[in-house]
Please model this.
Amino acid sequence: MGRGIVSAILSLFIIAIASLRLWYLYQPKTGPVGDGEYPEYPDFAYTSMYIGIILGICCLIFGIIRIIKSNRK
Model:
């Protein structure tokens, strides 16, 4: 059960980090440097964040399955 819990916690951490990076990317840039508009990023800039979210969800599912299997034994 220990490995399943560690896997679930790490996957939630991965999802949180990727989501925060995606959220920060969508924030308007204001202040002395920015003009309050959203900068144009190329499409591949989002790839690492989406891959992180997808991998985090997959690892979360596998962690839950591992917890369930270890509780059945």
Observations:
- The two ends are 10 Å apart (CA to CA).
- Residues 28 and 39 are 8 Å apart (CA to CA).
